[in-house]
Fold this sequence. Notes:
By secondary structure, the protein is α+β, with helices and mostly antiparallel strands. The chain has helices spanning 3-27, 63-87, 92-118, 177-191, 193-196, 202-208; strands at residues 36-39, 42-49, 143-148, 152-155, 167-170, 174-175. The model has no long low-confidence stretch (mean pLDDT 89).
Amino acid sequence: MSLRNSILIITIILLVDQFLKIYIKTNFIYGEAGQIDVASWFKILLIENEGMAWGTKIPGEYGKLFLTVFRILAVFGIGYWLYDANTKHSSNYLLVAISLIFAGALGNIIDSVFYGVIFDDSYGHLSTLFSENPYGTWFHGKVVDMFYFPFWEGTLPSWLPIWGGQPFKFFNAIFNIADMAISTGVGILIVFNKKAFAKKTIVESYRRS
């Protein structure tokens, strides 16, 4: 797969991711008020993630800034990995996986860097794009999430150790297109590990190009 195809994958994911985030942000009110029940196990609602997965935060005044800068550096590293893998004619499995991970990471970085200065908040009212009263500052934006799949919710059996009798929900994570791209890319690397990191000879690369 050529670098051009990788860029095409990244571009499509970024466009879909940002279009959906902007639409959700400007048409949904934060939390339950903006919820749409597509099915009992699939809901769409606006949640904003201030930190990492499952809302985990880095404490302190500069925690969010540190996280955003770290993400930017990571994207540069992933970008170099993609360029290097393409130069070495790595397998399509690896190139697709890296492209997905790069696109997802970049999509969430756009939220973190820019959203705080182009949107106002979504609490109790619809958010405005390019608002005169933004909710944050540069590098302190919140990542917009919207896909929610509560497949099962109930109380765990009392005979289970530690968690018995406790309320439980599967699956309670809320995520976006960028998160899906990252997870899919990582999944490809895990499931197709041998094929992803298989070495190609120069002759094989030439025949498949």
